[in-house]
Amino acid sequence: MTAETMPAEAVQPQDRGAPVIRTIAMPSDTNPAGDIFGGWLMAQMDLAAGNVAARRARGRCATISVEAMTFHHPVFVGDEVSIYAQILKVGRTSIRIHVEVWRRERESETTRKVTEGIFTFVAIGSDRRPRVVPEV
């Protein structure tokens, strides 16, 4: 099966550039059932979105909300996890970022989107108060 003949969900997005984070799911990241813990995935998503926010804001940012978090499929130990993040909107002091997580099975090229969500960050100044996000 080639990328052209695979179902859309089975091909990692090519239009988003390189992933912000790519890592391997390890045994220490599992829940009691042996699957990768959703909280670990959420933390990886927050790290990726925080990186994008800090680069766009040119400084410190803090997560203020996570919304529309949807888990589509599980992640297993040994899977390669790729996290893509895309800015949806830049406000006066805030940045909304859409984050997608894709998994690749350890011993194949099969990929699948496993979760996605929207993260909102606020730019923080040296006084730890919201600050204006600079123009591009």
Automatic annotation (TrEMBL):
<comment type="similarity">
    <text>Belongs to the acyl coenzyme A hydrolase family.</text>
</comment>
<feature type="domain" description="HotDog ACOT-type">
    <location>
        <begin position="15"/>
        <end position="127"/>
    </location>
</feature>
<dbReference type="GO" id="GO:0009062">
    <property type="term" value="P:fatty acid catabolic process"/>
</dbReference>
<keyword id="KW-0378">Hydrolase</keyword>
<dbReference type="GO" id="GO:0006637">
    <property type="term" value="P:acyl-CoA metabolic process"/>
</dbReference>
<protein>
    <submittedName>
        <fullName>Acyl-CoA thioester hydrolase</fullName>
        <ecNumber>3.1.2.-</ecNumber>
    </submittedName>
</protein>
<dbReference type="GO" id="GO:0052816">
    <property type="term" value="F:long-chain fatty acyl-CoA hydrolase activity"/>
</dbReference>
<dbReference type="GO" id="GO:0005829">
    <property type="term" value="C:cytosol"/>
</dbReference>
<dbReference type="InterPro" id="IPR040170">
    <property type="entry name" value="Cytosol_ACT"/>
</dbReference>
<dbReference type="Pfam" id="PF03061">
    <property type="entry name" value="4HBT"/>
</dbReference>
<dbReference type="InterPro" id="IPR033120">
    <property type="entry name" value="HOTDOG_ACOT"/>
</dbReference>
<dbReference type="InterPro" id="IPR029069">
    <property type="entry name" value="HotDog_dom_sf"/>
</dbReference>
<dbReference type="InterPro" id="IPR006683">
    <property type="entry name" value="Thioestr_dom"/>
</dbReference>
